[in-house]
Amino acid sequence: MSVLVYTESEQGKLKKTALEVASYAKAVANQLGTTVTAVAINANDTSELGKYGVDKVLNVTNAGLDAFNAKAYADVLKQAAEKEGSKVVIVSSSADSKYLAPLLSVGLEAGFASNVVEAPSSTSPFTVKRTAFTNKAFNMTTINTDVKLVAVSNNSFGLVESEGSATAEDFSPSIPEINVKVESVDKATDKVSIADAEIVVSAGRGMKGPENWGMIEELAEVLGAATACSKPVSDLGWRPHSEHVGQTGKPVASNLYIAIGISGAIQHLAGINASKVKVVINTDPEAPFFKAADYGVVGDAFEVVPALIEKLKAFKAQQ
Amino acid sequence: MKILVCISHVPDTTSKINFTEGDTKFDTNGVQFVINPNDEFGLTRAMWFKEKQGASVDVVNVGGPETEPTLRKALAIGADTAIRVNTEATDGFAVAKQLAKVIEDGGYDLVIAGRESIDYNGGMVPGMIAGLTNANFVNNCINLEIDGTNVTATREIDGGKETVSTTLPLVIGGQKGLVEESDLRIPNMRGIMMARKKPLQVVEPVAANAETASVKFEKPAPKGAVKLVAPDNLDELVNLLHNEAKVI
Ligand SMILES: Cc1cc2nc3c(=O)[nH]c(=O)nc-3n(C[C@H](O)[C@H](O)[C@H](O)COP(=O)(O)OP(=O)(O)OC[C@H]3O[C@@H](n4cnc5c(N)ncnc54)[C@H](O)[C@@H]3O)c2cc1C
Ligand SMILES: Nc1ncnc2c1ncn2[C@@H]1O[C@H](COP(=O)(O)O)[C@@H](O)[C@H]1O
Q: InterPro entries per the record (chain B) (predicted)?
């Protein structure tokens, strides 16, 4: 009966989103009066999960699962859910979890709600709040199947510590044949990814040219943030496509989003509206971004950004 | 190669989002509908396969008669045949069930869907189709090459990308990168004329139960006015972000 949660790791280390989905699973388990079981695949140390409400960890160790494979991972989770008799399964909104979730939904015959931003408002009927229309609205959705699958939106629930510790158990599921094989991975390991970042520093055409991105990167570094950009900036080749955020680019759900020299077109805002706090720096007080932002500076990025970097460095030094 | 492109019929990106009937229905009043942007990238890649490697390209939508102009647009862009499964798209699973039936009947080698639709944002239909038809599946697909039945695809991952090899039959959840913006085609007069003569088949749905149901919609609470900080007072911005917003 326990609530099952997939706690992702990367190179053996639990990801921060793993702690967030564990916290979410704990909230659901409290509502249902049951416990939380986590599934960790090739993770080195899962003891931290106890602090976020997990009662038991099923540790899967299998070299065949070193490279992510949606079908195989979905299959592992299906076997775990069946073993535990879980009626609710929780995953994150990472690219990998979003990839495996629909396969798991079919496998478990579990109704699936994605982009969920709050704990269920009711467990009978099982009702969750999810974003729709690219963050321009929310949709209250009921899941009406016996088993339910929920993908929690990144940074929407936060980390909630609880008392207790987790017991660990080895779990050896059968692994299906792998038909989609990873040939190569191209990933900057020294940079925070937009999906994982709590703070995103994003810049637009107002930066005039790629040669001016040094200050954007420096600001991001001071804040431990990921860098992002508007669509024209990636179309012009100033920045890689992987940094393009917005409706047709990557979604951003960070705690803080700083937009520099970005006008705030509706398609840009659609992708970043899920971010909690938005700051805009723009020379034009009429730029639409000021209507969407919490804090704004009307000013020239070429003066404001270097000054802000200095102020933040001083602030960080005091902390 | 037989290709099927799944087309979601969605409000244009600049549409005002409003609801009616006690916030239970999307208000389509004055809204212009378009091919879901992710599907348009996929359709354009399908046209490339048709022209460069030889393939037939069908498009499909699960929806009522109101989606036909969107399917006609796909025909005008160059698809050969359109199929409309005549039922309301109630939830991702019910839609995937209908699409799986069309795929089994049509014997498609490659099914191109979008990573996500911009209305429901489920990001679930492509994976569910793959699960239901037992096909290989690549999500967030940004590059696709096919040689016989061998496939090389690139998918976006958090913080980078990954190249995978697999085989047909295959379902992808596609997005920009499959083709670039500049490759998208605006239907010309000839395409539009030809589209009128191309077949648009209406097929009746199979039984499929929705697993989820929409109860109601909510709009985000109106946002308070922006707090402006003078450019020569950035200490104040740092202070607000630390003490008020608590994000640094
Ligand atoms: C179907 C569709 C999908 C789209 N999807 C996306 C998407 O996913 N993401 C996206 O970003 N866009 C998207 N767009 C494009 C979007 O409509 C805008 O064109 C784009 O977001 C504008 O980018 P920008 O703000 O960088 O540039 P601009 O609109 O050119 O704005 C530049 C801003 O910089 C300011 N500025 C200039 N100089 C300075 C300075 N020295 N200091 C500070 N500020 C300065 C200007 O006042 C201006 O506000 C989409 C469009 C369509 C039609
Ligand atoms: N009603 C539908 N008819 C045909 N294809 C659809 C429909 N709904 C979704 N799709 C396909 O599934 C993709 C993802 O949709 P979604 O799961 O709703 O985010 C879309 O980009 C389409 O390719």
A: ETF_a/b_N, ETF_b, ETF_beta_N, Rossmann-like_a/b/a_fold
